[in-house]
Design goal:
The protein is of the alpha+beta class. It is built from eight helices and four strands. The N and C termini lie far apart (about 55 Å).
């Protein structure tokens, strides 16, 4: 059997010389989950179509839930206790990441655990830029805060959230993982950077 050259690569020649059974139907990894995918797409479309009051984004419900809790903590003057509770609640998961870091010596696992492999981050922050030892994203709170402040639902600011909730919380998570991190100071552009400290 001679290779059919779609281009001049050795890879095409190599594939053509393999037995026919090496070519199998393309798999997505979602086979058998079509109903769940349909529901997820339906939810996305409903969210994107919701413009009552303001244009809702994919993370809208999670943002509001977090803002409600943070506003309560602020009103009751217990933000430090709320942060402490979050750190305690997440400790078992963060301690698992610590074990991975201890076994592999790869501190990058902390950033992966904090930003990539947790829906708590990627449902809240829709886009995160990743570099070795560093993650960056735009603060997710502004869109909903601006819309809901018109209704006097919240009096929080993004800077206040960054300084009193996010920074101590993420540092506590990192501490449970056995690593030190640096969180950027608040900037008006809303870009947050999280970096590993050697």
């Amino acid at each position: 059997m001679s290779a059919v050259h779609l281009d001049n690569s050795d890879q095409v020649t190599e594939l053509a010389q393999k037995p026919k059974s090496s070519f199998k139907g393309a798999k997505t990894g979602f086979e058998g989950k079509e109903a769940e995918i349909g529901k997820a797409v339906q939810m996305a479309l409903k969210t994107m179509a919701n413009s009552a009051g303001y244009q809702h984004e994919m993370n809208d419900a999670l943002i509001k839930a977090r803002l409600h809790a943070m506003q309560f903590a602020k009103d009751m003057d217990i933000m430090d206790k709320y942060v402490e509770h979050d750190i305690k609640t997440m400790a078992p998961i963060n301690e698992r990441v610590a074990m991975i870091i201890q076994k592999t010596g790869d501190k990058e696992a902390a950033l992966v655990g904090l930003c990539e492999r947790t829906a708590c981050h990627y449902h809240l922050v829709l886009e995160t830029d990743a570099e070795p030892g560093k993650r960056s994203w735009k603060s997710p709170w502004g869109h909903v805060l601006n819309a809901c402040k018109r209704l006097n639902m919240f009096d929080l600011t993004e800077q206040e959230i960054h300084e009193t909730w996010f920074t101590p919380r993420i540092k506590g998570f990192a501490d449970s993982m056995g690593v030190d991190v640096k969180v950027s100071d608040w900037n008006d552009d809303g870009i947050i950077t999280l970096e590993l400290i050697d």
